[in-house]
Amino acid sequence: MQYSDLIEVADDFQQWKDLLSANEIKNNDELADLLDAFEQLLTNQLGGDYV
């Protein structure tokens, strides 16, 4: 995966996360855990520059 691809995925993820949070769907514990894990993965892959 190219760095630019990862940035695009990160941007898509952020928009998705904002939408879910706005709709309070994040109250689902499993979904919250998944979002947190994916956010941590993005942070690790991007060297902490993203989040």
End-to-end gap:
19 Å
Average of per-residue pLDDT values: 72
Helical segment count: 2
Structural class estimated from helices and strands: mainly alpha
Low-pLDDT stretches are none
DSSP, total strands: 0
Sheet of most strands = none
Approximate strand percentage = under 5%
Principal-axis shape equals flat
Task: Looking at this protein, list some descriptive labels.
single chain; 51 residues; mainly alpha; 73% helix; flat
Overview of the structural elements:
The model has no long low-confidence stretch (mean pLDDT 72). This protein has two helices and no strands. With 51 residues, it is an all-alpha fold. It has helices spanning 3-22, 29-45.
What's the short story on this structure?
With 51 residues, the protein is mainly α.
How do the helices and strands line up, and which of them pair or pack?
Blueprint: H1 3-22, H2 29-45
Helix pairs in contact: 1-2
